[in-house]
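Lesson 9: reading folded outputs for more than one chain in a single document. The general rule is that every protein is listed as its sequence immediately followed by its structure tokens, and records are never interleaved. Here is the first one.
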Amino acid sequence: MCQVPSRAVEPGRRGMRRAVTTFLGLVVLILVGWWGIRAFERANLFIPSRILEAKPSDIGLEYKDFVVEPTPGQHVHGWFIPAEKPIAILLFCHGNAGNISHRLDSIRLFHELNLSVLIFDYRGYGRSEDGSSEERVYADAFSVYQAARTHKEPIVLFGRSLGGAVAVDLATRVDDAAALIVESSFTSTVAIGKELYPFLPVSWMVTMPFDSLSKIPKVRCPVLVIHSPEDDIIPFHHGKELFEAAPEPKKFLQISGDHNNGYRESGKIYMDGIAAFLAEVLPATGP
């Protein structure tokens, strides 16, 4: 029997080992890169705070804590701040940073408009369960909406920034919302990503598109879009595009100021604009 000398076999084995090592290294590199992209996306979309730094009673408003379960064992916490003579319940979907305790200024303004406020934290924020994702925040909002339906007042959906995308999605899932208000929000995270990183293949990198532009035409209630030309985070054209895509009846309210303080800086324009819109969509009890 003829035997192949060991010295002839070893170079082939070494080559095979190098090929396997190179392949495994490439796989690890791809996985690490993919994990990095996912971590970068999540870190930019969700910037939660767990500590509630204040409560409505600190500004003289009565409130009640509430908890809902979007899925068994997964709780979402929020506050219900009743108005004395409410014209509606405003379901408040907040932006991507902080938690409900950082929205007391807005709660006060809505209270002045005779709106009871139902505000909640997405999972991963405040006292809500861990773990945010696009589908989870949608489910969180829908669960809170179901709780709001136990009240007799009409329900107005409100979303600011990331919360605007949550409110738009919710408005496409329900049939009995009285109105939708979208403030300082974007058309989609893909669109924002392409503007911020035009050199990257954003379309295939994004897994949570929050695509309001494709959803808002399906909304079945009156729509108010609010945006400022001075918004330093979400460009003004996003608000205009959402407004143009929304079905009638609809209104656009142009405010002033930056992304986080526009509603404060606009003052009377902001308040009067929302009040006028509500007077039209809630004619029987409008302010």
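And here is the second record, again sequence then tokens.
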Amino acid sequence: MIWTAVFSAFWLGIVTAISPCPLATNIAAISFIGRKAGQKNTVIASGLLYALGRTMAYVILGGIITAGVLSSAESSRFLQRYMNEALGPILIILGLVLLGWVGSGASIQLGAAKLQERAKAGGIIWAVPIGALFALSFCPVSAGLFFGGLLPLALKHNSAFVLPVVYGIGTSLPVVAFAFIMAFASNYVGRVFNKLTQIELWVRYLAGAAFILVGVYYCLTRIYGLHMF
């Protein structure tokens, strides 16, 4: 069961990474990392440090929330009793967010753009705070995936560290992949990026539809007690 949760957290991270708002921040990160495209080691190190910063932000935020909730015996008992019932409606709402039927284009930027401008003249270590701030620059889709998708999963499995780490790795995977592409096959960057932007919409719609279907299933089986199979 824990491996299913790990895969789910990783998939949530991938969907987050290629959703419109996080995709825009990842593109900005790629432009920062690619400013020294001729230096392979620098590009790869920048990509990995960006992933580290992004993952650390999710781990700290997710760990504080999940550990804080789980440390309360009353909250823990409440979650054990009602999490399965709540998961269905949460997944349905999350699916509606992914389909664009709920939420708007608003986002929280936390000054990440200004930091990126300052970092352009600095060393690769700037990739860490950029990754952290980009991770915390929530928009409706990324907020829904993190707070509505990952955190309930982490709470259900008492995982304040592992699942946020896996989610963070998933969100930064495209940037790390592009770092390696820029380091070893820079001619293919534009081609790969075009493919990524083309499949983003389909992946998001398929994920949204899947979340809604699974949410309906949870509602019918956990709330109404129907036996589907």
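What the second record shows: The radius of gyration is 18 Å.
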